[in-house]
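Consider the tokenized backbone below.
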């Protein structure tokens, strides 16, 4: 996954805030990357409403 690509949130691994749950099924743009716990990298996604948060790579699918 690369910065600028469109991605769709298709699942959530952990319990998250209601604001993040609302993004399930929505499409956003990759803004960058974030170290999560020292062993994996999160992907920062921004949505049309300017809300941004990070997801694990296996929670996202690239939109063609």
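A designed sequence for it:
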């Amino acid at each position: 996954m690369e910065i600028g690509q469109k991605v769709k949130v298709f699942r959530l691994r952990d319990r998250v805030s209601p604001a993040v749950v609302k993004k399930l099924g929505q499409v956003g743009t990759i803004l960058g990357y974030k170290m999560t716990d020292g062993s994996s990298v999160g992907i920062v996604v921004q949505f049309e409403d300017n809300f941004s948060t990070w997801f694990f790579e296996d929670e996202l699918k690239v939109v063609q």
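The beta strands are 6-9, 27-35, 41-46, 52-56, 60-62.
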